[in-house]
Amino acid sequence: MTIGKALTIAGSDSGGGAGIQADLKTFQELNVFGMSAITAVTAQNTLGVHGVYPLSVEAVVKQIEAIGTDLGADAVKTGMLFSSEIIQAVSECIIRFKWENIVVDPVMIAKGGASLLQNEAIAALKKHLLPLAMVITPNIPEAEVLADMSIDTIDDRLEAAKRLHQLGAKHVVMKGGHGREEELVDILYDGVEFTYFKGKRMVTKNTHGTGCTFAAAVTAELAKGKSVKHAVETAKRFIQAAIEDDLEIGSGHGPTNHWAYQKRQRGVK
Ligand SMILES: Nc1ncnc2c1ncn2[C@@H]1O[C@H](COP(=O)(O)OP(=O)(O)O)[C@@H](O)[C@H]1O
Ligand SMILES: Cc1ncc(COP(=O)(O)OP(=O)(O)O)c(N)n1
């Protein structure tokens, strides 16, 4: 039996809604073998981030090498990378193992405001990692930082996507969660055309980890050999189901329901 293999290089969320934990749950739900390299441990729950403990560059590289020299990966997702040193080391590993299906989720700030990327690491992200990305999945505030512009209108989002493509990312998904439109739209740009993925904006506070989950679903589909457009379409349906099938866990911004998509596929209510 051959199975797609996906690697996530990201931070650990003790609360289980975002980071490595969200990624591995999503890989499993989309029938892909999941592997991880942890960059930092966070003490986190639905109320916020209570501590950030980065791992050494050596520890990150050793984990990636263990995977690259044995199991291999059909697609790789990066999430919280924390420092320019980790970004540079991760980029070198990606080149060394000739991994091509790279999904970069440029995680910067958690919902509660905690910084998950040092300010001085933004330049390293742009210089080393963006040119390796098959897909980059910024939310609006992240796109503003990376494209160096403010984003108010849909036209601004298209312009930001063009700028990020010029920085080397082959595909850009401008996520629309932070927008205000009633029909929420994520926009894919491949350097030639824009494709719009629309969905109902759910009114809920339980959206912790939506960005991680969405990017992990894109990664899982790429690991199965699907096209980027197909991967984004599936990821949109996956996250929509995960938000709609509300769990109500914790007293703050709760996690999404990672098994809701499978339930729908099987026709389970
Ligand atoms: N309230 C919502 N209703 C439906 N989909 C949402 C909602 N909030 C976010 N999403 C979806 O979740 C994904 C992540 O969106 P976004 O909030 O922009 O990113 P992040 O979680 O990185 O801040 C996107 O696919 C977006 O369309
Ligand atoms: C360890 C870790 N990584 C990433 C995030 C950010 O997750 P995201 O999907 O953007 O969701 P919110 O945190 O914004 O709800 C995180 N919190 N922790």
Automatic annotation (TrEMBL):
Domain of life where this protein originates: Bacteria
EC supergroup of this enzyme: transferase
Residue ranges constituting the Pyridoxamine kinase/Phosphomethylpyrimidine kinase domain according to the UniProt record: 13-257
Gene3D superfamilies, A to Z: 3.40.1190.20
EC number: 2.7.1.49, 2.7.4.7
Reaction(s) this enzyme catalyzes, per UniProt: 4-amino-2-methyl-5-(phosphooxymethyl)pyrimidine + ATP = 4-amino-2-methyl-5-(diphosphooxymethyl)pyrimidine + ADP; 4-amino-5-hydroxymethyl-2-methylpyrimidine + ATP = 4-amino-2-methyl-5-(phosphooxymethyl)pyrimidine + ADP + H(+)
Any one biological process term the GO annotation gives: thiamine biosynthetic process
Record's GO cellular component terms: cytosol
Entry keywords, A to Z: ATP-binding, Kinase, Nucleotide-binding, Thiamine biosynthesis, Transferase
Record has Nucleotide-binding as a keyword: yes
Pathway: Cofactor biosynthesis; thiamine diphosphate biosynthesis; 4-amino-2-methyl-5-diphosphomethylpyrimidine from 5-amino-1-(5-phospho-D-ribosyl)imidazole: step 2/3; Cofactor biosynthesis; thiamine diphosphate biosynthesis; 4-amino-2-methyl-5-diphosphomethylpyrimidine from 5-amino-1-(5-phospho-D-ribosyl)imidazole: step 3/3
Presence of the UniProt keyword Transferase in the record: yes
MF terms (GO), sorted A to Z: ATP binding; hydroxymethylpyrimidine kinase activity; phosphomethylpyrimidine kinase activity
One Pfam short name: Phos_pyr_kin
Family statement: Belongs to the ThiD family.
Official protein name in the record: Hydroxymethylpyrimidine/phosphomethylpyrimidine kinase
Organism this protein belongs to: Metabacillus sediminilitoris
Gene designation: thiD
